[in-house]
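Review session, final week

We close the course with one last complete record, chosen because it touches almost every idea we covered. It is Bifunctional protein FolD, a protein from Colwellia chukchiensis with 292 residues. Go through it on your own first, then we will talk.
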Amino acid sequence: MTIIDGKLTAKNLREKLAIEVAEMKSEYGVQPSLTVVMVGDDPASQVYVKNKVQQTQAIGMISSEINMPANCSQSVLLDQIKALNHDSSVHGILVQLPLPHHIDESAVIAAIDPNKDVDGFHAINSGRLFNGDLGAMVPCTPQGCVLLIKQHLGGDLSGKHVVVIGRSNIVGKPVAMLLLQENCTVTITHSRTRNLPEVCRQADIVVAAVGIAEFVKADWIKEGATVIDVGINRVITHDGKYKLVGDVDYQAVIEGCGAITPVPGGVGPMTIACLLKNTLLAAQATISKRSV
Ligand SMILES: Nc1nc(=O)c2c([nH]1)NC[C@@H]1CN(c3ccc(C(=O)N[C@@H](CCC(=O)O)C(=O)O)cc3)C=[N+]21
């Protein structure tokens, strides 16, 4: 049984990106820059923003943060996004989700310039991904999942049966599209799926992205299967402390599976590394536009 080390894989990816960032600076005088817009103070988002700002700067990119109050109106937020769209010194824009309930998330995502949409959430980018267009900004968590799977299984995923648990626009659907592009046979399951344990037992690879702590049990997993745990759930332990657990019953599943990603230290760090990669790609696209 292998524990897939997302922390190390993410570190290796960041080191490669740092070299490309330095080359871009010296050859073109361009330093990739990412702006994170945060509305209100959701604690889960704060953890993420803290890690992201530190890691963006550590690989030589510019990172800035715009904080808006929780009661900020949708039109003020949309104006802020428009200003960032027009600011040529900003290559990547990320609006932290979730947003307060009075703001329409889809309207906000639609306002981001698709070329600066480093989350890959804009309909133009999901459409490109759906069409297998290599120009898509690919969502970070799905990208991270595929990199971890390929690293463990050695690149060729042809014919592997993947069962994805969860059908969100940010993980379930895009990870299914990426794996389909890798020639996997993909089953997307969700809360209405019948006989979910039985369906999961067919899988060579399980991607758990439901957002329910320790939802996936040991007897759902075929012996030797690869288990990718996307969940980040904060639970209270018996001694009253908080800890992070995934969507997989980790202690039980490690017995029989072939490989598993831990939480923390699995998909989470890869999400941030892929965000940095998307920021670099967004910056590179502005250079190739300039030179022609
Ligand atoms: N527009 C937008 N894009 C996002 O990608 C996005 C977002 N909004 N809102 C919040 C969620 C959450 N998210 C995480 C990414 C990495 C870790 C991560 O690195 N986790 C560490 C542990 C962190 C800890 O110790 O708490 C790990 O799993 O090892 C966590 C959470 C991105 N999100």
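Two points worth writing down before the exam:
Residues 61 and 286 are 15 Å apart (CA to CA).
Residues 44-45, 47-48, 51, 94-97, 119, 140, 232, 244, 263-265, 268-269, 271-272 surround 5,10-Methenyltetrahydrofolate (CB under 6 Å).
Good luck, everyone.
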